[in-house]
Amino acid sequence: MKFLRGISATLLLFLAGTGSLNAEEIGIGVLNGTVATEAAFLNAQPGTLAQEGETWNFITPTTAAKTSATGLKTVRGTATQASISFNNPGYCFSNGTFAADKNRDYLLMDSWAGIRGMENVVISQLPDSMAEYCHVEIYGDCNTTNRDMLYTVNGMVKTIQDRENFSGTFNEGANKVTLRYVPVVNGVITITGNGADSTRSAINAVRLISPAPGIISFTATPPEIMEGSAAGAELSWKTWKCGEVTLSTKDGENIPVTTENGTGAITVNPEQTTTYVLNARGEDGTESAAEVMVTIKKQEPEILIFESDKKRIVPGADEEATLTWSTVKAQNLELTANGKNIAITSENGAGTLRVKPTETTLYTLTLTAADGTQKSKSLIISVLSENTPNVLLFLVDDMGWQDTSVPFYYQNGQPVKTALNNFYKTPSMERLAAQGLKFTNAYSCPVCSPGRTSLMTGKNAARHRVTNWTSPNSPVLNDSNPHVLMQAPQWNMGGMSQQEIPLPRVLQEAGYRTIMVGKAHFAPATERYANPINLGFDVNIGGSSAGQPGSYTPQFGSGVYHVAGLEEYYKYTTTEERKRNFLTNALTQEMKKQIKAAVDEQKPFFAYMAHYAVHQRHDQPDPNGDTEYYQALQPGRTDFEGNVNINQNIGNFATLIQGMDRSLGDLMDYLQELGVADKTLVIFMSDNGGDSPIQQGSSRNMPMVEKVSAIAPLRGRKGNRYEGGTRIPMIVGWAKVNASAPIQQEYPIPQNVANHDIVAIWDIYPTLLSMLKLQVPVDQQVDGEDISPYFKGEASFHRTQKIYHHYPHYHGYGHFYSTYREGDWKVIYDYLDQYPNTDIWTTYNEGYKTAGRFPWKLFNLKDDISESKDQARDPAQQERLMRMARALMRELHGADAQYPLLKRNGKIIGTAYIRMPDLPDVDSDGDGVPDLIEDANGNGLIDPGETDPDDPSSVVPIQE
Asked: What is the DSSP letter of 445?
């Protein structure tokens, strides 16, 4: 370590204005660059942080090693015994922000060391002035536009949200954090970063400051109280080296308090919102003050309680249930049962009522306040008969449309066995398809969290706004390799909104035992819906914020990717243990236990079997699959379309498919063993397009992820705008066919039949509720349609044959697009293609130029299932293109969709809205006025002063 004119830097710690005039300060900076050197720092102009005449300590950490510096000097140049140690930082880097014309602040923000998990920074043997407490500043810039960096300093936590490169200004929470009065333990400060499974926290500089006597903390608990509350709020404080401590309101009212050993507390109950001021005089005569506000929240009209002592009543059992309610500020209360008014009596806004429903009934209590404000709450009392079906919803992760021996590809009405169908072995899927209904045009979302949220809410992803996969740790933007021109909007990064009424909650309230086993991935770990129990599941085994397993073998991963609750399956030595305790089978056994518990309780069940298979990792074969067969395949052998060669990971993936299929068969067999198979509906589907480890060679003109290979004959894969990204296998049938079973008489699901209509994963929500004689909650807007008439064999029924997808994100497999299918035709809109001279690069560094490309594509899926013949520029199809473009834009508008954001020099400058095709001569409705004249702003909508380009009667005379 060198000292240059009293300046040393690499890790910089400083807290301006928080120490006394005689405070000791130690500054430390990280240097890793060839340009950002100590000599350059010496010659550069002073900055706001690195000022002239100060001494800074520099250190150059080494990746995955311990790097130390001793004898740290204060900024005044005084030698101390303090030392710093970077312990195994996982990444050391230079941002390249410093140049000869930049000041010292740029140099200090140029280099950084990244830490996470057990990696840390330890500063020890601090001077006596920092023996008890120390102010700490951490400066961090990892040269990215999207990273949340957590710092824990001796138990105190702060976060930097790094959203742009350093531009010369320090901003709290953006590239620096300040921690006041950090408790020092035995002369040591320890800094840790993000969790082990997250990106690293960058440390560019650290600054330590000896604190003056003062107020360590001053808080109000709770900070907000309801008007009329008797409890009040507790004010508590902690001071250091202070004598006199006084408390008053901001308007001057003194409040007597007692402080002992630097701490004190008092309960206050103000009549109005009040700011309290704590003043303290230090032993050295310094004065400090702190403020807290206690807010008085106005009591709004509210239904505090509306509940029933019973959720389910057995028909003919002569049972009653008691409804109970409690409200505030209600002028009138009204109760309805399935929409019909029921007379009630309330006293002080509260009351009870005995009810005896003869059918499943939705009770709604509506409060009307004096000012006309209305509030409502609802509950369901189910009258579930022997005819009430159970549901096994079997969801596979990342399974493609062709990852099965069941053919989903049809030509001229006949199934086509592809090379992929011949490669995979799925006899249980074949069994279910033979006794049920196979949907060849079923869709989900491009990636997992959106599809799973759509399943649970009945909404298209554009509406629920969970448009990308959620991070396992905390809400982040989650764009891989952010593009220089565009980035994702502020989508629901925290996962499913708590305003949603999830499907399992509706079923739980209706008396179902709701079971979740396997992958959840509804929200990051910090959010409420990370725990499936909060969605309405009675049981959760293995479900968390993780989107993939840490391992398919015991102990099933670690950290945030650990699959919990499977300790019974940790042995993995013998062949039998390997088969029994592989993750897919372990989860299957747990599901069996839970189904049996429901049957023993004589309760209908909703069993959500959400396997982690067949998601990556693909280096662990399932021993329940035909591992010997797939391992014996000769490497390099060509078995598929497009010159795709077999490698070991493909064989491992095939065994994961087999293990998943075996799970399906085992559960169907167990339902028969329990005697409930003929009243259990089985729904089999995948959460998004396939992601098998099949990759065709790529070229500069087409990345491999858009080729026809992994899901042939479909083009693309998971995350992609082509059919391979969203089309999924789906089969519906009874676990056992029994024509005499009452529920099967009502729903005689056609056997061994292929249905070619468009259906979607968000149809499941309203469909199940319809079959179970339940209503979609009035506060839950759904995009899905009830497709249960298909299960009755109603040949005349057809779901609306339209579907759209919206993915305003950058992903290694796809980027910024919307699609719309109507019948056999499909349009794709690429948001980046509307901008000239842009290059798109995948995570595999295989890109293609988009300069001058037309942003719209048009395909006929009936004649061109591989989407290889773009007809968007065909004059014969331009009216169709314009109509479908408008339809897509109106769907997005109706869902209040979010659009990608435009960037320039790393900063947001606008929104990339979808644009109509630039076809100025097209007149779709033949009224003599071109479409782009009728829709003058080109947004596809009918705005004031515009006419409908699809309606020839909608014409405004053209005036001079």
From this structure: B
816, two tokens:
């910024």
- Give the three-class secondary structure for 180: strand
* Contact yes or no for 211/240 (Cβ under 8 A): yes
pLDDT of residue 960: 37
Nearest to 310 by CA among 350, 360, 260: 360
Omega prior to 183 cis, within 30 of 0:
no
Place of tokens 């159970």: 390
CB within 8 Å of 877: residues ≥ 6 apart = 858, 871
- pLDDT given at position 699: 41
For residue 509, with 0-12 CB atoms within 10 Å meaning exposed, 13-18 middle and 19 or more buried, which class applies? buried
Residue reference for tokens 């929500």: 765
Question: Which pLDDT belongs to residue 635?
Answer: 67
Q: How many other C-beta atoms are found inside a 10 Å radius of the C-beta of residue 445?
A: 32
Collapsing DSSP to helix, strand or coil, 508 comes out as helix
Instruction: For residue range 773-819, list pLDDT tens digits in order.
Output: 888 998 899 999 999 999 999 999 999 999 999 999 988 788 899 99
Tell me what pLDDT residue 132 has.
Answer: 96
Cα distance between the two ends of the chain: 80
d(CA 633, CA 629): 7
Identify the helix (H) or strand (E) that includes residue 757: strand 753-760
Label residue 119 exposed, middle or buried (CB < 10 Å: 0-12, 13-18, 19+).
buried
Cis peptide before 177 (omega within 30 of 0): no
Helix, strand, coil content of the chain in percent (nearest 5):
20, 30, 50
321-328 and 350-355 strand pairing? antiparallel
Cα separation, 728 vs 721, whole angstroms: 14
- Tell me the C-alpha distance between 314 and 318, whole Å: 8
Q: Which residues of the chain have pLDDT under 50?
A: 1-20, 696-705, 839-851, 960
Beta pairing partners, 686? 396
What local confidence, expressed as pLDDT, does residue 581 receive?
Answer: 97
pLDDT at 606: 98
H or E element at residue 896: none
Judged by DSSP in three states, 430 sits in helix
Q: Are 641 and 419 in contact (CB under 8 A)?
A: yes
- Whole-number pLDDT of residue 708: 65
The tokens of 574 are what?
């013998």
> Do residues 20 and 286 lie in contact, with contact meaning Cβ atoms separated by under 8 Å?
yes
The token pair that represents 620 in the structure block:
């662990």
Give, for 228, the enclosing helix (H) or strand (E).
none
Q: Quick check: 594 and 515 in contact, CB under 8 A?
A: yes
Question: What gap in Å lies between CA 939 and CA 899, rounded to an integer?
Answer: 13
* DSSP per-residue letters across 72-125: PBPTT--B-S-EEEEE--SEEEE-----TTS-HHHHHTTEEEEEBTT-EEEEES
* CA separation for the pair 281, 240 (Å, rounded): 10
Is the C-alpha dihedral spanning 729, 734, 736, 740 positive or negative? negative
Burial class (CB in 10 A: 0-12, 13-18, 19+), 717: buried
d(CA 404, CA 442): 15
pLDDT, residue 10, reads: 29
Q: Are 842 and 703 in contact (CB under 8 A)?
A: yes
